[in-house]
Amino acid sequence: MRTDAAEVLDSAISVLAKDRAASMQVIAARAGISRATLVRLFPTRKLLVQAMAEKILDDCDRVLSQAETEAETEATPMERVLGALVAEYTPFAQLWNLVYVDPDVSGVPEASTRAKAIFIQTVKLMERGQETGLLRGDMPATWLASTFCGLAETAWELTLEGHMGARQAPNFINAILLHGARAR
User: Fold this and answer.
1) Are 149 and 141 within 8 A, CB to CB?
2) What are the CA-CA distances from residue 20 to residues 13, 15, 103 (Å)?
């Protein structure tokens, strides 16, 4: 039986992405634990959702910090920096799928502030991509950052539903972000 809080959060995030109304009983069952164990880890659904949001925000911060560190190294091409960001797309998908829409999270000022800061950092990475000529300069960087997050959310949902493989998702995101949907 799994009782590690991080594993339970990963399962709960996937459950709530598919069913926002899932009860603690349903979340526990799909996580492979008893409801009592879930309640021991997270006494209320609101606390569970807030812990999920904190994990998602922490994961986004980690991925962005790694990408920014690589971007600051002149020897690292921006294509590799963007590729590393896209390879770790899941937290950004979860950010858009859960953090921005769940009332137990969106009403928490700290979570909202952190989510805005993450988006601003993502915009800055897109601006760097534009400065190097990797990304189109005729579109606002906010559009590119929003496009990345929207593509990430779509890829994650399709992966959860079994419509695409987890290894395909970064390639598809990268292809659309860099080349659009136009036939070659």
Assistant:
1) no
2) 10, 8, 11
Residue with tokens 């080349």: 179
Considering Cα of 72, then 77, then 89, then 140, what sign does the dihedral take?
positive
Q: Report the predicted TM-score, pTM, of the whole model to 2 decimal places.
A: 0.85
Q: Of 184, 155, 151, 169, whose CA–CA distance to 87 is shortest? A: 169
- b (16+ CB within 10 A) / e for 22-49: bebeebbebbebeeebbbebbeebeebb
The residue whose two tokens read 């997270």 is 42
Collapse the DSSP code of 3 into the 3-class scheme (helix H, G, I; strand E, B; otherwise coil) and give the result: coil
How far, in Å, CA of 14 to CA of 91, rounded? 11
3-state secondary structure of 168: helix
pLDDT, tens digit only, all 184 positions of the chain? 455 788 889 889 888 888 888 899 999 998 889 999 999 999 998 899 889 889 999 999 999 999 988 888 777 788 888 988 999 998 888 887 777 666 666 667 788 888 889 999 999 999 999 999 999 999 999 999 999 999 999 999 899 889 999 889 999 999 998 888 887 6
Contacts 24+ apart (CB under 8 A), 60-63: 60/91, 60/92, 60/95, 60/118, 61/114, 61/118, 62/91, 63/88, 63/91, 63/92
Sorted by sequence, the CB contacts under 8 Å of residue 80 that are 6+ apart come out as 70
